[in-house]
Amino acid sequence: MKKTLALAVVLALAAGCTGKPEPNASEGPFKRGSGTLRVLAGSELTDLQPILEEAKAATGVTVKLTEIGTLDGIERVAAGTAGRDQDAIWFSSNRYLELHPDAAGRIDVSTKVANSPVVLGLRASVAKQLGWDKHRPTWSEIATAAGEGRFTYGMTNPAASNSGYSALVSVAAALAGTGRALTTNEITALTPRLQSFFAGQSLTAGSSGWLADAYVKRQAGDAPVDGLINYESVLLSVNAGKRLPEPLTVVYPADGVVTADYPLTLLAGASEQARTNYAAVADFLRRPSTQRKLMESTFRRPAVPGITLAKAFGPADGGLVELPFPSRYEAATALVTGFGDTLRKPARTIYLLDVSGSMKGARIKGLQTALLGLSGADTSLSGSLTRFNGREQVIMLPFSTTPKAPRRFDLPETGRQAVTGQIRGYVRGLAASGDTAIYEALVRGLDLARQLDAADPGRFTSVVLLTDGERTVGRTLAGFRSWHAKLPAKIKAIPVFTVLFGESHVGEMTQIATLSGGRTFDARSGSLTGVFKEIRGYQ
Amino acid sequence: MRRRPWTILVTAVVLAAIGAGLGWYLGADHLDPVRGVVGSEKAPFFADRRVQEAFARHGLRVETDPRGSREMATTVPLGRYDFAFPGSEQAADRVRQARPATGSYAPFRSPLAVATFTPVADLLAAQGVARRAPEGHWVLDLTKLLELAHQDKRWDQLPGNVAYPARRDILLTTTHPGDSNSAAVYAWLALMRLGGGAGAVEQVVKLFADQGGLERSTEDPFEKYLAQGLNYAPLVLAYEAQYVDAALSGTLPLGATLVYLSPTTSSTHTVVAFDGRGGEVGRLLTTDPELVRLAAEHGFRTADESVFAPVLARVPAGGAALPTHLTDLVDSPDPGVVESLLTTLNQRLRS
C-alpha cells in the first residue's frame, strides 16, 4: 500500500517535471500523431485552447483551429471545398449540416466531445421579479413575458450562429407543442407568438462569444439588457468570471431545450497522417481526466458517462427535456429564412460608404459586388441566408469630402424583388472622387438613426462604416467622441461595425467600434463580400 | 543511508517505466496496423486494452474507425480498410456489394433492445405497452408501441405520468435507418408488425421523421443515454451488448433498465474481410478463446452459450436477470424487402 502511494508520488513528480499530461494507468497510453490537425471550428470553441495545448503535449499533435461561422462552415463542407486546406471540422452541432443534401459523403468519423444546452440567463433580480428563480417557465411563458416587454434579452442571429438557431428551434418546437419534429407547414401558424417572443430581443450578434462579451459591456453602460440566450456553458462561465454586477440566474425552460454536442468530425478524403492525428486528439479529448477538466474549466457537460456533474449544472429540480430538431433540410432552412423575413424584430441597417478618390477602381468594384450580393445576386446558401430581409430598412449613405444625400430602401415582407432591384441600380451607380470626412459621415448617419428611431422605434438599428483610408477633412475622432457622449442612451448604444480596408486607421476604427459597442471586421486581406456577409449576423 | 529505500524505489520505478516502455516499443505499437471500419457499438470492445493485447499476441495491431453499419456501403471509403464489421448479415451483404470480400466471419450476435429507466418501464406497463416475460425480463409490445406512435400520443398525455411528463411523442430514439443497422432493423420489424404495404411504409417513415434529427451510428444516442439519462430521452434503441457493457463498467445512469422488443431479431455482427489480414481478425474473433471471452465480457452473445451466459447473469435489469434464450424471435428479414424499405426511407427522410 505504502509502496503504491510512493510510486504514485514519484510518478506524479515525474509528470510534474516534464509538464506533460500523464495517461491514467487504467486508460492505457496516449495515442500519438505528429504535425498539425487543421480544424475549421466555431468561434465558441476557442476557450478550449488550454486543453488543446495539453492535447499537444500528450499526443504530439498541434490542433490548429481556424474560426468560421457555423453557416459558412456548412457551406464549405457541403460544397466540398473545406477539405482543400482543412482536415476536420468542429462546430457545436452537426445537425444542420447532416440535413444538407450535399453533406453525405463529405464527412467521415465523428466524435462527440461535450454537451451544452441552449438556455436563458437572466439578471438575478429580473428572474426573481418574474418568479423564475423558483418556477421553471415554459418557452410559451417566456415568449409571452418577452412580448409584454417584461424583460429584454440578447441572442445570436440564427442564420449565423448555432446558439441562436438552437434557441429558435427550441421555442418554435415548444410553441408548436406537437411533441414531434417541426415541419415546414407548421411554421406559419406560429408567426404571431414567435414575433411576440422576438419583440423582446434587444441585442444580436453573429457569434455566441461576442454576444456574451457585448452583454457584459452593456451591463456597465446606460442601456443594459436583462437576459442572454446562449449555451449554458457561456452563461456559467460569465458567472464564474464574476464579470457582472449581479449574477445571471440560469433558467431551464420546462418544456425543453436543444443541446449542442460538439462533434469533432474528420472530413472525407483526409490524409492518413490527418486520420492518425485525428484519432489521437479525439482519444485524448474523451479521456475521463480531460472530460473532467473540460467540465471544470469551460462548464460544458461531459460527453462520456461516469463523470459526476459539478454543482453548477442545473436544473436543481430534475429533468431537462430534449426538444426535437427538424428532421428535414427544408424545414430547418425555412425556420432561418422565416426568422429573417417575418419573425425577428426588423432591422434598420445604415451603410456609411467611403466613395473618396482612393476607392476608385478595384475597391469600389469590390464594394459593389458585396452589396449586390446582399441584394439577391448571391444565391449560395450563405448568400440566401444573409441577403437583405423582408421588412428591413436599408440606408445607403455615401461620403467623400462631405456626407452625401442618404438613400433609404424599405423592403416589404414578401415580394422584395422590386426594392432589391432598386438597391442594385443604386449600388451600380456609386462612383468615387474627393476627400474622406469619416466623422462627418458618422454624425450624419447617427443623426439620421435618431430621427428614424423616433418615428419607428421597434427596429434593431446598426451602422456599418467602410472606409479605405484616414480622415482628411471635417470633424476628428476627438470631436466625434464628445458629440457621441451627449447622445441619448438608446442612440449611443447603436453599434457601429467598422470594416478595416485598404489603408484604414486601425486604431481609430477600433476606437469607434469600442465606443459604440460594435466590432471591427478585417477585409484588408480578404474580400469585402465575405466580411459584409459576416456583418449580417450582427445587424 | 535513510534515503536508501527511496533511491531503490526510484530506480525500480525508472526501470519499470523503461521496461514498460520497452515492452510497448517491442509490442503492438510497432506492428503495421490492420484497419477496420466497425459499427460504433463495437468501439468500446476494440478500445479495450486487453483486446488490443490479445490481438498483439497474434502479431496484429487493430485500428478501428466507428461508423454507421449502413454508411459502410455508401459513404465510407472502404478501400483503406482491411475489414468492415457491420452489425448484421444484411449490412454485411451491402458491404460485400460495395467491395469484394475475401471472407466473412460471424463471431457474435446481439439482439436489439431498448435502454430505459424503471419508472418509465412501469409507466409503459400500466399502459399495457411493456410487460414481464415469463423469465422475468421486461419486453416491449411493439404492436402497442406502434399504435401509440400512430396516434401521436405524447408522454404528458399518459395518466399518472410523473416519470417523464414531457410534451414529446412516445417514440423510440433511434439512429438514421439509412446510416445505421440498428435503426434499419427496427424499421423492418415495425414494417412486419404493420403488415407491410404502402400505408405501413408511411407509418414507418413517421417513426423516424417525427423524432427530428437523427444520429448516424448506434453508440452516439446510447452514449447520450449514459451521460445524460432522462435529460436525453426516455427510450433509446440499442444493442443488448451496449447495455451489458455499460452495466459491467458501472456507467449506467441511475434507475436504468433494459426492455427487449417483442418480437425481436438477433443481429449477427459480421466481419467482412477484404484481405488476409482482415480475415485474420475475423478468424481470431471467432476462434481465439481470449477474444471470445472478451467479446462476451463486452456483452456480445458468442457462439458458445457457456461463455456469455455467466456474463448476462451478472447484469441486473428490472429486478431479473437478462434472458439467455430469447423468445419471440423472428427470422432475419429478406434482404430484398429490407433494401427496398431502406431505399424508400432514405428518399423520404432526406428529401
UniProtKB/TrEMBL annotation, chain A:
Domain of life: Bacteria
InterPro entries on file: VWF_A, vWFA_dom_sf
Protein name: VWA domain-containing protein
Lineage: Bacteria, Bacillati, Actinomycetota, Actinomycetes, Micromonosporales
Organism in which the protein naturally occurs: Phytohabitans rumicis
Transmembrane segments: none
VWFA domain residues: 348-539
Automatic annotation (TrEMBL), chain B:
Organism: Phytohabitans rumicis
Protein's recorded name: Extracellular solute-binding protein
UniProt superkingdom: Bacteria
